[in-house]
Amino acid sequence: MPAATDFRRRAFSIATINASGRDVGRHVYWKLYAIENLVRVVVHSVLSVQIPGGNWWTAVDQGLQSKVAGFRGQYANQPWHSTPGRHEVYYTFLSDLNAIITAHSHLFRPTIPDIDQWIARIEQIRLPRNIVGHMNWPSSTDRQRIDVFYKDFQALIKKLASANFNFVIP
Prior knowledge:
Elements: H1 14-50, H2 62-76, H3 94-103, H4 105-108, H5 115-133, H6 140-162
């Protein structure tokens, strides 16, 4: 079977669109899923310890809190649909997560000393993530950027785990 290509560069064919979707899902989407959810777990784990009172979400920017409350309300109004999760962090986008990390970078620094580099790297995959998340075809450069970030972020997670970092799933 030939390698899948961007269906938009070929004559219309349902099979070509299906092949494009399978290729992006098999090679890219799952990595972004893992990255975004691992970032959520790291944010929750660090801030749950660093912000006293047990509910770190109250320290998040009011604008983001309002946006998330709106999303939660949409799901509450249609309870027959699945929800993103119980905690507000599951209603955030990668850009929101990066804004939370940036605003509280001083709280991440004891655990992740090079947090500023991670903030920059998350920003570098934000647009490629949006391409894939909105069901478009990523360029080979974007695929490589996602692959490298995924590999490096997995290494960070393993390093934290080996240092007995307490991961807490929200």
